[in-house]
Model the fold of this input.
Amino acid sequence: MSGNNLTNLSPQEKVSLKQGKVILKGQKGIYLGQVETSGNINAAWQVLTDYDNFERFMPNVASCKIISSKGDRILFEQVNVVDLWLFKQKFTVQIEAIKTKPNQIDFKIVKGDLKKLVGRWQIKKISPDQVLVSHTVEVEPGDKTERPLFYGVYESSLEETLKAIAQEITKRSQV
Done:
């Protein structure tokens, strides 16, 4: 991932993170999203690897099912439905994820409606009851999709997804 300058947070961004806001940096398909949430690393890992239940707590995920699982590698199919004003689109992707417990998941598209999707989830313990979830991703729409529109929609859905993940981590940590 070439976006090292994305990881340097300004003092204002650090404050926003502490307040539980989602920080989203990048543009045109290369993004870094971060959110800090109360919870523990185990709950965060559970949430990010709970493929069978993504549609329950992740906005825009219509369905997700595991195709195969072998050791730390998993192949799953995810259907995302994006509905924004007059724009409604469905994307189906098969993603291979390589899990490095307890703090990293690398993923890439194997086939589907996007030209490119590659990235990484990282979980970092900040204190006994605070975790930082970072998501780096490079994404490119298929040929039939209007790029500027796609990126606008993708950015807002990425922010929503990170918020939802943070809420789910907090919820599961309290159990």
